[in-house]
TrEMBL record, chains A, B, C, D:
Species this chain originates from: Streptomyces dubilierae
Signal peptide: none
Similarity comment text for this entry: Belongs to the DapA family.
Record EC number: 4.1.3.3, 4.2.1.41, 4.3.3.7
InterPro entries, sorted: Aldolase_TIM, DapA-like, Schiff_base-form_aldolases_AS
UniProt key word Lyase: yes
UniProt KW Lyase keyword: yes
Name of the protein in question: Dihydrodipicolinate synthase family protein
């Protein structure tokens, strides 16, 4: 399957693990089915919500192969190629495309301290070596630099990038890319996606092509409805659906901040919710994340109940 | 060779590359000889100065194997196992120890946002799986968290960590670890190393066991002299030698900050200096770093000349 | 004039200066007239765009007195009381309310490193001493902490705060306050205002009460139209007007980042635009800001011309 | 009294408050006597440790007047002129010099986002208006920019700055200023002071002229001994004294981080210690700082007892 322009709802799939920390393929495929049944428009594996940072190379490969084998052809599969710099990212691009990914999603370099000119060089070198389209992944909370809008537009105009997945939370900067892409003669087929669960309606209203919501693992039907309402121009309906999802999103904060980081809490809650909803067998998160306590899991259940998801 | 307590001068080796970006093993071995001839006390490969963040897994393995085969038994070889989280770091630990490393050097998790409790879990899990001692690598500029001193001391007391390589630049915090280690009955054989090129004399004076200076690639004799003067209690001599090295260190800033990041400038300058001194064949740095211009390389040469190194 | 709930378009007024750095009162009053004629709903003096950080206490007092004497009774006047901590802010509150301000706008403490509990204490103590309503000013780029949404809601419920002026750029967090305020039984008359020039339409669509756009100095008619279109439910019209304003906003970046900070560029451009439009006599910014060059001012003129404002 | 070059031990005086938050002048003067009796070489009022950020203009003036009247002529009095930008700092300079300060201590601009060129303009404009020498105050934790070493040296060479008070914790950068000042023909009488309580010995060993230790309020005799040992070249004695002071410094962390910021804990502990030692009447800190609990105060007492100060 060739994807020229990812759009619509493309959840970043959680990666279910077995109790001993290996990829739980049957659970993963049930998650794919759960999402496909809700009507999502694509699948994003090996992103931050997928715990890509925690998966070994063997596990990453298994995830892509399993999902592509199961859903390839029906749904486009985007795969993260998350690593520190160009040479290492190139290796991941080779691995995930060999495993069948339709597009790769690539962050700016991290660990290394890079200049915007080096970020541009990075994407040019990665794209030159990639057999599939490259989507830029803007996630300052992880890589500690913000992808400059003018760099994204320059790379889009040069055909280096096929899209942007924006997890910066900065809607004003996102808008500059959205309108820049639209108004630039030389850019076609570029996809602008937001990773913001809480303002997906606003992002679509200003012209985003699609949404990549981590919470979409838990309630894919909600995001599919939201996307449909936005495209139908039903601003009030969209806002109501979005606010329902915002309330549900509260589950990411169940973890005690005195005991764990915000990532452990959010991913732990997504997995607990998928487990409570019967989609995956085990809510384990990867090392060294601290697991939710039984009380915290119970609070996840209350969020699900309040949203009518149990 | 077993190392219980790394000490003295342990340079973090640059990784020479061929013009097409592969590890230049003959140059790497000449660099090892250059350092050994100067009297260094150990070798640290796959650290930040080694461009570990830029090397593929195959390149990393080749570096460790080559250096261990060449110098193992004569000098202890510490190897970085630099990756985002526990499962990925464990794979690197397995690889570098299979290749013969005498100890592994491990940062806090990065990309992921972790809590101090998760940093501790990370080191415990890595150490449990490591056949060799684990040295913690505190490098906030890369991983964006400072390793808390109390976590280091707790892990030292529990036998999880065998040492600390501090590249934080925070000498006051470093001192707390140095004195904490010294005064704690239950901690023995723990090695406290500084990565600060410019205050190595001060770090040794407050009780550091050794120094891991990137600039030690360029002038290993200088750091060996500095270490000897400090151990001999010659504060004035040490200060003079240190100030000479501080002047030389100015070479890390030759790169134009409008054109490249500080890492590209520093590593580019180290490699240019090694090339000008005839140690390595090619000064190339890895992608996506911007190379120094001929003018900038010329300025590196002036620093070398001023230091009597050409 | 009593204001219970500021709403609509409330520009943060630039503070025109004479060539020798004193407040240019006639120009300031012409700016007030320029805004009033466009139909704005309130005036915010002594905010960041007003260069409050650069004005002496005497200048601050003169600004408030002048604007209140000129426009008080016709338009509500909100005044910043910007200083580091509670005792100093209390003094500013006393000064600006003596000068006639209808409400005060107060940031979290800065310079000092504060805990969220101390931020709450700060607002409670300031409000207890203020004869007028207190609006919280969330501006992390200046004070280096983000005002936590739950603290804002707690203070709103307790009647401590009368509103929030959000300049964080984080629309998701802003939405949590908007919906939190709306859904909380115990909160009435609380005003939620955005300082984001580029996503004012989105902020109004999710329920903001008003906008406080620095660019509103330059094109108040545009923001008044935008506000009207949003309230009329004309999403497409609002989006078009907003995008026109986004294009105009490009003028804030005319200043060379190699020569000046982003604040000097933005405030310099606002003042240059007001000067070119004939509203103020002199575009000078306060010390130590670097002034725009003639070329940079010319580029401001081009933005105005493109927007039909010259 | 004219001071050309502050040197030695110059504690940043705590500002004792009465139970209702006013400056407690008798306690302040007892603190001055306590320090003078220990043999300190100067007094620094209205610094961060003095809670300058929390004092009103009237309180600031009272502090300077009281201390100058009491100790002026015997000890040089340096006074902070802490505010956001040039015009406001100029007013503070006028006030503290009218009150008799021998030198003023000035940070880079804060709240505003400034460029290094603007920091330099700031100091030039402040110095041009100051009747007394200007000392730069490098305190990134408060102002969120690091004072660039080359800017300091340029301003020193031009006679704009008379000294540097470094509270950055970055000893390598500090050393660059120390040696830059020493080696520059055109710089004379420039004073380089460290604010680092824990590495004062190291700072003096690399060439600092003096120390400005907050902990010097609590144990001025310790820092005077340390300074004397360093100047006598007794590195081992200095190290032992410094380590004793490091152990005592642990008192700054008695405050529960779940309940208060680090500043509240540190200043609260200094004041509690001064109260327990009988120097000041009341340990109150200014609003909105959270006070230490009785248990936390008891722990301060244990630190004092362990150091032989009770």
């Amino acid at each position: 399957m060739t994807i020229t322009q990812p759009a619509g709802v493309i959840p970043p799939l959680c990666t279910p693990l077995t109790p001993d920390g290996e990829v739980d393929v049957p659970s993963l495929l049930r998650l794919v089915d759960h999402l496909a049944a809700a009507g999502v428009h694509g699948l994003f594996v090996l992103g931050s919500t997928s715990e890509a940072a925690y998966l070994t190379d063997a596990q990453r490969r298994l995830v892509v192969e399993s999902v592509v084998r199961h859903a390839g052809g029906q749904l486009p599969v985007l795969a993260g190629a998350i690593d520190m710099t160009t040479p290492r990212v190139r290796d991941h691009v080779a691995a995930v495309t060999a495993a069948g990914a339709d597009a790769v999603v690539v962050t700016a370099p991290f660990y290394a301290r890079t200049h915007p000119a080096e970020i541009a060089r990075h994407y040019r070198a990665v794209a030159a070596a990639s057999p599939v389209p490259v989507v830029a992944y803007d996630i300052p909370v992880a890589v500690h630099t913000k992808l400059p809008g003018d760099v994204v537009l320059e790379l889009a105009a040069d055909g280096v990038l096929a899209g942007l997945k924006d997890s910066s939370g900065d809607l004003a900067a996102f808008r500059q890319v959205v309108t820049g892409v639209r108004d630039h003669q030389g850019i076609t087929g570029f996809s602008v996606l937001t990773g913001s669960e809480l303002i997906a309606d606003a992002a679509l209203a200003i012209g985003a092509d699609g949404v990549v919501p981590g919470l979409g693992n838990v309630d894919p039907h909600g995001y599919v409805r939201l996307d449909r309402l936005c495209r139908a121009g039903d601003a009030e309906g969209a806002r109501a659906e979005q606010e329902r999802l915002c309330a549900l999103f509260g589950l990411v904060s169940v973890g005690d901040p005195a005991r764990m980081g915000p990532g452990s809490s959010a991913i732990g809650a997504f997995k607990a919710a998928l487990h409570l909803r019967g989609v995956i067998d085990c809510p384990l998160t990867a090392e060294p994340q601290v697991p939710l306590s039984p009380d915290e899991v119970e609070r996840v259940g209350k969020y699900l109940a309040a949203a009518g998801l149990l």
